């Protein structure tokens, strides 16, 4: 049975960090980056960094299946765009992929964001990750812009969805 839990900075974050590292680690491996070339990626996040992010405005939710942590998702209100929220840290451990788990996470986050009165959701991803782009497109997201960041070894695609 699926169960969502709001994660706070006061909790032991080791299990969530593990989910983030394992989930994003497959992407890091597929696209050939590591902690040296992309230190801010969730594949390499550490507990203190996550704790700082939680203290600075992200809301993180964990998804469990029969008490086993299988994924997580974060939402954050945009400081630049009125009525816009970001979805971040979309993470599903590999053995739970392609079973609807990611869609459950996205639907949960979308409902939370709607309840907060937002009109738009924005996400960012590796531009060359065609499979993930198609997945987000299937949920109503459209490409909005692209940006190259000096500190990242890939181009970033920003996608958005009106709600």
CATH hierarchy, class: Alpha Beta
Q: What is the third-level CATH name, the topology?
A: Aminopeptidase
Overall form: globular
Strands of the largest sheet, in order across it?
1-2-3-4-5-7-6
CATH architecture: 3-Layer(aba) Sandwich
| Major sheet details | 7 strands, mixed
Total strands: the figure is 7
Count the DSSP helices. 4
Radius of gyration, in angstroms, nearest whole number? 15 Å
Number of domain units: 1
- Secondary structure category: alpha+beta
**Content of β-strand:** 25-35%
Name the poorly predicted regions: none
CATH-defined superfamily: Gcn5-related N-acetyltransferase (GNAT)
Separation, N- and C-terminal Cα atoms: 28 Å
> How do the SSEs run, as a string of H and E?
EHHEEEHEHEE
Protein name: Putative GNAT family N-acyltransferase
GO molecular function: acyltransferase activity, transferring groups other than amino-acyl groups
Domain N-acetyltransferase: 17-163
InterPro entries: Acyl_CoA_acyltransferase (IPR016181), GNAT_dom (IPR000182)
Explain this structure.
By secondary structure, the protein is α+β, with helices and mostly antiparallel strands. The chain has one domain: 3-Layer(aba) Sandwich (Aminopeptidase), CATH 3.40.630.30. Helix content is 31%, strand content 33%. Keywords: Acyltransferase, Transferase. InterPro entries: Acyl_CoA_acyltransferase, GNAT_dom.
């Amino acid at each position: 049975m699926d169960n969502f839990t709001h994660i706070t900075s006061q909790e032991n974050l080791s299990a969530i960090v593990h989910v983030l590292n394992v989930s994003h680690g497959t992407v890091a491996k597929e696209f050939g980056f590591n902690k040296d070339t992309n230190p801010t990626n969730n594949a390499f996040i550490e507990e203190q960094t996550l704790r700082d992010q939680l203290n600075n405005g992200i809301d993180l939710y964990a998804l469990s299946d029969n008490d086993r942590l299988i994924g997580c998702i974060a939402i954050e209100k945009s400081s630049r765009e009125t009525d816009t929220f970001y979805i971040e840290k979309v993470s599903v451990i590999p053995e739970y992929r392609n079973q609807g788990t990611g869609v459950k996470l996205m639907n949960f986050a979308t409902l939370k964001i709607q309840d907060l009165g937002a009109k738009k959701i924005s996400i960012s991803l590796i531009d060359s990750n065609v499979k993930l782009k198609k997945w987000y497109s299937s949920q109503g997201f459209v490409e909005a812009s692209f940006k190259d960041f000096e500190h990242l070894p890939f181009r970033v695609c920003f996608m958005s969805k009106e709600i």
